[in-house]
Amino acid sequence: MSLPYVAFEGIEGAGKSTVSDRVRNLLEADGYRVVQVREPGGTAVGERIRSILLGHDLAPEPWTEALLFAAARAQLAAEIVGPALAEGSWVLSDRTVYSSLAYQGAGRRLGIDAVRAVNEPGLGGVWPSLVILLAVDPERGLSRQEVGDRIGDEGVEFQRAVAKGFERLAADDPERFVVIDTHMALDEVVDAAHRAIRSRW
Ligand code: TYD
User: Fold this and answer.
1) Can you give the pLDDT at residue 67?
2) Over 131-194, what HEC string results?
3) C-alpha 176 to ligand 1 mean position (Å)
4) Which of 77, 79, 90, 170 has its CA 20 to 30 A from that of 42?
5) Is 72 close to ligand 1, i.e. is its CB under 6 Å away?
6) Which atom, in ligand 1's list, is nearest to the CA of 151?
7) Ligand 1, atom 14: nearest CA belongs to which residue?
8) Measuring CA to CA, how many Å separate 141 from each of 63, 96, 145, 165, 185?
9) What is the pLDDT of residue 145?
10) What is the distance in A from the centroid of ligand 1 to the CA of 33?
């Protein structure tokens, strides 16, 4: 059976962190050990890379950006996600490699396959088995966003391209993806995500 590495994905303002926090509590109440992480970051190396990527003071080129996300992710896979799965924990991640495929591959137009190719070597097979894609209309998502970052502030056209990227990824891989419309009440979104996870394992 595939390892319980679950990704929460979506554009800005989809509610990933709120939903993943609530699902974590439900899984712990079900009796599972859960490790929760976020990308970019989650390790000392990753948090430094995060400040390069998301601060407004630097302007990395698109491929620099893609490679830095991949580098932070390789560190997280080796240091946290791989070991947690090996010891039998569940891993919930607020964003994963699928954000790079959608944001850098589709949003920055580097190409989904090219971005996947630079991520794979650093991950050593540590790859999400289930992706919960929280779908929100781009305008509504941006209006819900509390604090902006360099990439989150790219504007609505960029968010639309990213959303299209996520839609394409989900359509091409329906076994791995569960798409949840977040225009319903938060409790219903959390319940749908929890059910999707429990029905998989
Ligand atoms: P974060 O503060 O985690 O915010 P959010 O609540 O939107 O998840 O910011 C992460 C930002 O980095 C967000 O704008 C999406 C972007 N991002 C990428 O462009 N590529 C990636 O691979 C990842 C992980 C994030």
Assistant:
1) 98
2) EEEEECCHHHHHHHCCCCCCCHHHCHHHHHHHHHHHHHHHHHCCCCEEEEECCCCHHHHHHHHH
3) 21
4) 170
5) no
6) 14
7) 152
8) 26, 19, 6, 16, 15
9) 83
10) 26
